[in-house]
Amino acid sequence: LKAEATVANLPASDRGPDRVWYGSAAASEFHDMDWLSSHLDPGEDVTIRSLTNDQTILVLAGPKSREVLSEVARGDWSRDAFPWLSLRETHIGIAPATVLGVSFSGELAYEIHVPNHSLHAAWLALRRAGETHGLKLFGSRAVDSMRLEKGFLHWKSDILTEFDPYETGLDRFVSPDKGDFVGRDALIKRHETGPRRRLVTLSVETKDAPAHPGASVRADGRIVGTVTSGDWGHRTGLNLAYAFVLPELSSAENAVTVDSLGEPVPATVIPPGPYDPGFERIRS
Questions:
Q1: What count of other Cβ atoms lies within 10 Å of the Cβ of residue 249?
Q2: For 164-175, what is each residue's pLDDT tens digit?
Q3: Is the pLDDT of residue 154 over 90?
Q4: Counting C-beta atoms within 10 Å of the first and last residue's C-beta, which end of the chain has fewer, N or C?
């Protein structure tokens, strides 16, 4: 796995021609730019431009986020007019913005990309609109907890260059039959040899502390895997962790232990994304 990104087609408008909107993970901007640039075909009419220093992303999330957005943004934001995974150019108050219907929290949510020179105007408009809806601020630690409950993965925590899409549970995004792509032959060959590890979700049976990335996972007195992420799920009431483990232990209900505060703590493999497994809230 080489990257984690949000990719969307942005139709031509008064802001520019047809474009591909590529949202890189924050920590991998230069990595992704190098990778994309090095794989441009000399015959392709493609220009890659970084907007990192030009734009800022505001995230509006929660069951009332559509109501807040509708009060400040032009256009129809109903579920039918702007469903999950949609993209639209609009204005937030007087600020031009590009809105993506994506969520890392597991709730109905919007990523609002705003030019830096208009950021304060967009911020004020959203805050004022949110006053009657109980809008509050939330931070990265809250998002990290929520994405674990939803089964979403984090670049360089759970999405790693050491493991392929099949081992990481991302095989639904792989289509070897669609034609040639970078790494296709190597991926097919690797898949034929079978997985060395599989990423699983663990329910850790303690309220003392979350599992720490890098902690060992054990079974029958031997190390069988490594934790990649861990946090308390406040909506599910579960102490959750991701870990790469031996394939034979990756099925739900397998029992293991996780090293926590110097002690082995019982844990059980559970299906990923225990919060809203049917994605009803994101699609609401």
A1: 19
A2: 999 999 999 999
A3: yes
A4: C
